[in-house]
Amino acid sequence: MLLFSTIKLSEELFLKFPVLTFIFLVLIVHFVYRYGYRKMAPTVESGVLVMALSVFALFLLPVLTMSPFLKWVAGMTVFIIWFYLAFNLLQAFIQAEWSLHDRVNQVALGSWVVGTAMTALLLDQAEHTLHGFIVFLSIIAVILWIGYLKMIMRWFVVFIEQKAKLPVHGNLLLAAVSTQSIVLLIEELFDSALPIGIYQILIFWGLLCYALAVIFIAIYWLSRQRQCHVATWSNSYGLLHGAMAISALAMFNTQAFSSDLANIAWWWALIVFILFEGMEIFRAIVRVQSRGLRRGLFVYSTSQWTRIFTFGMLYAATLAYYGQQFSENHFILMIVNEGKYVLVVLLALEVILAWRRAAQAGMVVDADNLSH
Question: Tens of pLDDT along 125-142?
Answer without folding.
Answer: 888 788 889 999 999 999
